[in-house]
Model the fold of this input.
Amino acid sequence: MTEQEVFVLATAPSIPDMLAGKTMEEAGRDNFKGDLLGATPKHAFAAVVDRACKVVWDIKDLDSTVHTSFGDFSARDYLIQITYSGACGRTTSPK
Done:
């Protein structure tokens, strides 16, 4: 698994809960720990990414609040942060 795939797997499962405005406690801090891929890793990985992408495409209010472990941000700023971090296909900031 590449570094970018590891980042996506660590980030993407929580995106729907984060964009729904849930806190880490409401979403369950430990819900996305352990083996998230199971017996069919390629299928499970694709399902995690598909679910996260659908939520991002369907977001209605980019000014809604996202509660992260390091503070509250608008959904717009949260999406910029995870995009530049690699969750949406980029591991570094654009030049």
